[in-house]
Amino acid sequence: MSAVNVTNDVERMQFQVNMDGEVGFLEYRWSDGVLVLMHTEVPEKLGGRGIASALAAYAFGYAREQGVRVRVYCPFVLAWLKKHPEQGDIVVKSGME
Predict the structure, then answer these.
(1) Is residue 97 one of the residues assigned to a domain?
(2) Is the dihedral of CA 62, 64, 67, 73 positive or negative?
(3) What range does the domain containing 49 cover?
């Protein structure tokens, strides 16, 4: 498996992976200085390559670099957090957990 390169499209408010002519993304918003993770979408053609997990990991790394907390509404990221509890220290509860 090749390395997954994640970029931040600030205008679209998406962390993105561009691969094989397809785009997988994790949509985010900002609310009172908190990075809010809304929705992850990976095209079927890119499935099974760990792209959604790479997007989630990137989002948390980005939040740490920026010194901000994270609120999660995305069901995929909520499931990913259960496998990566070490990331929970920067999570603001959304009421969906």
Answers:
(1) no
(2) positive
(3) 6-92
Domain membership flag for residue 1? no
Please state the φ and ψ torsions of residue 2, each to the nearest 5 degrees.
Answer: -80, 160
CATH of the domain at 49: 3.40.630.30
C-alpha 90/C-alpha 41 separation (Å) is 23
Query: How sure is the predictor about 94, in pLDDT bands with cuts at 50, 70 and 90?
Result: low
Per-residue pLDDT tens digits for 15-65: 999 998 999 999 999 999 999 999 999 999 999 999 999 999 999 999 999
Per-residue b/e over 48-70, b at no fewer than 16 CB within 10 Å?
Answer: ebebbbbbbbbbbebbeeeeebb
